[in-house]
Amino acid sequence: MTSSLDSVTIGAFFIVLLLTAASGLLISKWQSRGKGGLEEWGLGGRQFGTLVTWFLVGGDFYTAYTIIAVPALVFATGAAGFFALPYTIIVYPFVFATMPRLWAVSRAHNLVTPADFVRLRYGSHWLASAVALTGILALMPYVALQFTGIEAVLSQMGITGDTEIMKMTPVVLAFVGVAGFTFAAGLRAPALIAFAKDVMIYVVVIAAVVALPHHFGGYRNIFTLASNHFAAQHSGSVVLQPSGFSAYATLALGSALAAFMYPHTVTSVLASSSAKVIRRNAVLLPAYTFLLGLVALLGIVGVAANLHLHSSKDVIPALFRLAFPRWFLGFAFAAITVAALVPAAIMSIAAANLFTRNLYVEYLNRDATPGRQGSVAKFASLGVNACALLFVLIVPMQYAINLQLLGGVLVLQTLPAIVFGLWKRLFHHQALLAGWAASLLLSGFLLAELKLQTSSYPITIGGHIFSVYVGIIALVTNLAITCVVSWILDVLKVARLVDGTVSADYIA
Amino acid sequence: MSKEVSSNETKDERHQIREAAPARSLRAWHYCVLSLPFFGLLLPSFYARWSPEIFGFPFFYAYQFLWIFVSAALTALVYRSITK
Fold first, then answer.
1. Which of A29, A403, A475, A497 pairs as cysteine with A141 (C-beta 3.0–4.6 A)?
2. How far apart are CA A266 and CA A141, in angstroms?
3. Pick the residue with more confidence: A217 or A76?
4. Nearest residue of A to residue B81, measured between CA atoms
5. Which ipTM did the prediction report?
6. pLDDT tens for residues A64-81?
7. Is residue A247 in some structural domain?
8. Which residues neighbour A318 within 8 Å (Cβ) at sequence distance 6 or greater?
9. Domain at A190, CATH number
10. Residue B20 near chain A (CB below 8 Å)
């Protein structure tokens, strides 16, 4: 696909980015009334109301990578890529049932990370460290991936550069910006920029879904055209084929269960001012799902338009070029860029919180004051951003995508330790550790078998072959091992460690 | 809120906690209602069809888009029931 430097587009792109950055700088003066230290920097003082939380979780969960990758998958495979829609629908009833309890117990004991909760509930620093390390590992490639969005945008604008260094300069600048904002203002910085990001993304997506179908004679025509193209290329389909049912359902379920096991989504939940804020948001956040559904449909539009792309990741920028006037194209590309920076900042904060609470305080400095923890976390976030930058510069993007796939599978394996403990201490911590370790080995093995090219593994049941999401296979194994080991420990009358919570802690 | 608040917290914060607490937890039927979207969406054999078309959308897409609203409404129902 030919790209050309266009001064109107690039001008609009940089003006919008500069305005966003300037407003972010101004508003980051927005100070808290409450306590300082880590809860202030890493959780915004737990003061975010319904609206801020809506923007924050929206900014966190629907990332630039989502906006690029979901339509790319639909463009490549058709209906099979649409699992992102059921995934982001069923995730909210799950959030409604689980997250208010996690918020309540965290508020009652000043907990900052999911691993903090596991530590308090099960009394085991080994289990807490396992949860924390899994979270950090899963986050690193995710931070790096946000920059695929920026890369896709820059290459569409023709900013490619002759050398690798010139090409990477804008990415490096974006990283420096994120690191600086995060260091100075903590979670408040992305919370505020998320307002701008979400409004811009809404404007862009609505403009795209209004302008594009018109371009191709309406949705009925688009679906028919796309169906013909899929049939001609002998891959993909507009309606899901029976062979794809099991992968579709297990990917939706596994992704939904994993979504709020990621430390960064938990961070934005724990920053709420009350459990009521979380419940309200579980009702209101599906508005973003509607938006995501529209974005996913753009993949079908891309097929109907018969776009010939170097990579399916270019489908959104390419469609925007078709549909938008040049100045608005610059605005749209700036929106995608900001949509990468917001989650990258929240992810680095979440990883820094985990490092500080569950590694630094646990193993290096037991008596660290909240103020000390706050400054450790600030520098840890710089470290996280530096690592992610190195990752982006050194590791080819395809590996980042594969590692993110692995990260999603791994983070799902922390579910038994985090979620079941919110109701009852059914399991021994040794059993949870055993299940976690076994499921990690199994997922590594299965994904290696698949050469990290796909995340669905074919299993045979009663002569039929079902493709099942590796995360779900590993989770079932994880739970089975946890149950059996826990039962054995009960039979052997092995004592449990002290539970630091009481049942009233979970109600709010 | 029966849980005792630790003494190093300010009066203001204690007030905030009490205000934020409807103090009712979910009952069995709440969990049943919250699980309905899982049944509605995780069995694609029920909805992976082209017809009937709705506003030009194959049923596969229209059905799943519809569930965004159904799921939000069900969650709102449970929210209503516990925050009365």
1. A403
2. 18
3. A76
4. A279
5. 0.88
6. 878 888 898 899 889 999
7. yes
8. A1, A156, A302, A307, A309
9. 1.20.1730.10
10. yes
Contact A86 B65 (CB under 8 A): no
Report the candidate in A106, A98, A118, A140 with the shortest Cα–Cα distance to residue A38.
Answer: A106
Q: Which residue range(s) make up the domain with A369? A: 48-506
Q: Is A215 on the interface with B (CB under 8 A)?
A: no
Locus of tokens 């007030």:
B15
Phi/psi of residue A158, nearest 5 degrees? 90, 5
Task: Annotate A254-301 with DSSP letters as a single string.
Answer: HHHHHHTTSHHHHHHHHTBS-HHHHHHHHHHTHHHHHHHHHHHHHHHH
Q: What is the pLDDT of residue B15?
A: 47
CA-angle at A236, arms to A235 and A238, nearest 5°: 140
A344-380 pLDDT tens trace: 889 999 999 999 999 998 899 888 888 888 889 989 9
pLDDT at A135: 94
Alpha carbons A4 and A330: distance in angstroms, whole number = 13
Six token digits for residue A9: 């587009």
Exposure class string for A183-219: b at 16+ Cβ within 10 A, else e: bebbbbbbbbbbbbbbebbeebbebbbebbbeeeeeb
A224 touches chain B (CB under 8 A): no
State the total domains in chain A: 1
User: What is the number of other CB atoms lying within 10 angstroms of the CB of residue B25?
Assistant: 15
CA distance A136 to A372: 21
Helix, strand, or coil (residue A307): coil
Average pLDDT of every residue of chain A: 86
